[in-house]
C-alpha cells in the first residue's frame, strides 16, 4: 500500500470551491478519500462535487455549504459529514479572509476582529467539533493552511499575518494536547500561489516581478503544489510529524 493512500478516509476541506482548497480536495479524492466540499455558496461547491464525482465515481464528494464565521454553520458541516460518511478522518482548515489591506494604524476594531474570528477562532471551533471522534478512534490528521506571512512582518498585510502566526501556535498547542491520542495537527505555510485570493499580487506584471525576483524558483506556486503537501500531512507518510509548519514557498523565506 502506498504511504499516501487515503482509501477509506473522509476529509472535510473548507474553502474548497476554488483555489488551494479545491486542489486539496481533488488530490485527496485521487488518493481514495471521500471529500466534503465547503464554502459559502452551494452552487460553487456543487460544481466541484460534480467534477470530482464524474472522475472518481458517485458518492466520492458531497457539498455542505458553510460560512466559517458561523459556529452553527460549522457544526452543521460536521454533522452532515458524519451523517453521510459516518466519520471525519481528516480536517483541512483552509478558508480564511483578509478584509483589510494597509498599515495596522488604519485597521478598524471590527476589521481586526473579523480577521481573527475567521482565520483563528473559526479553526478552533471546527477542530473542537471533530477532535473528540478522532481522539476516540486514536487516529486523525488536522491541517491548517496558514501562510509564510505568519513568519514575517509586512507594511500592508500585518493584521492577516498576525492571524496566520496565531495558526502556527494553534497547531503547536493542539499537537501537544492531542498527540497522546495519535491525533496530529500541522500547518502548511504557502508562499504566493496563483489563486483568486492573491490575484492582486500576481496579475500585475510589476508586482509579479517584485514577488518572484528574489525567489530561488523564480515563479509563484500553483494550487496543486500545496495540495501535495496536504496529501502528505493527511496520510501515513507523515505519521511521525505533528505540531509543525510546512513551508511551501519556492524558497522565498530562505
From TrEMBL:
Keywords from the UniProt entry: Oxidoreductase
SUPFAM superfamilies: NAD(P)-binding Rossmann-fold domains (SSF51735)
Any matching Pfam family: adh_short_C2
Superkingdom of source: Bacteria
NCBIfam families, A to Z: PRK07231.1
Entry's family note: Belongs to the short-chain dehydrogenases/reductases (SDR) family.
UniProt name for this protein: 7-alpha-hydroxysteroid dehydrogenase
Organism: Cupriavidus numazuensis
UniProt gene name: hdhA_1
Amino acid at each position: 500500500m502506498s504511504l499516501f493512500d487515503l482509501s477509506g478516509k473522509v476529509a472535510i476541506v473548507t474553502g474548497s470551491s476554488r483555489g488551494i482548497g479545491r486542489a486539496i480536495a481533488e488530490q485527496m479524492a485521487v488518493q481514495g478519500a471521500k471529500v466534503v466540499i465547503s464554502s459559502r455558496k452551494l452552487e460553487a461547491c456543487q460544481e466541484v462535487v460534480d467534477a470530482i464525482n464524474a472522475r472518481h465515481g458517485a458518492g466520492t464528494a458531497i457539498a455542505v455549504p458553510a460560512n466559517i464565521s458561523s459556529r452553527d454553520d460549522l457544526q452543521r458541516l460536521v454533522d452532515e459529514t458524519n451523517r453521510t460518511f459516518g466519520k471525519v478522518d481528516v480536517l483541512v482548515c483552509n478558508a480564511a479572509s483578509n478584509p483589510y489591506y494597509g498599515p495596522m494604524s488604519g485597521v478598524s476594531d471590527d476589521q481586526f476582529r473579523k480577521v481573527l474570528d475567521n482565520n483563528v477562532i473559526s479553526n478552533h471551533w471546527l477542530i473542537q467539533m471533530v477532535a473528540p471522534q478522532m481522539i476516540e478512534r486514536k487516529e486523525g490528521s488536522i491541517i491548517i493552511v496558514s501562510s509564510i506571512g505568519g513568519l514575517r512582518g509586512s507594511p500592508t498585510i500585518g493584521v492577516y499575518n498576525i492571524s496566520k502566526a496565531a495558526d502556527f501556535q494553534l497547531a503547536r498547542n493542539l499537537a501537544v494536547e492531542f498527540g497522546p491520542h495519535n491525533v496530529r495537527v500541522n500547518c502548511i505555510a504557502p508562499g504566493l500561489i496563483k489563486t483568486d485570493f492573491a490575484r492582486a499580487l500576481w496579475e500585475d506584471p510589476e508586482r509579479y516581478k517584485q514577488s518572484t525576483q528574489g525567489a530561488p524558483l523564480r515563479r509563484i506556486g500553483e494550487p496543486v503544489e500545496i495540495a501535495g503537501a496536504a496529501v502528505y500531512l493527511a496520510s501515513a507518510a507523515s505519521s511521525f510529524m505533528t505540531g509543525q509548519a510546512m513551508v511551501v514557498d519556492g524558497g522565498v523565506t530562505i
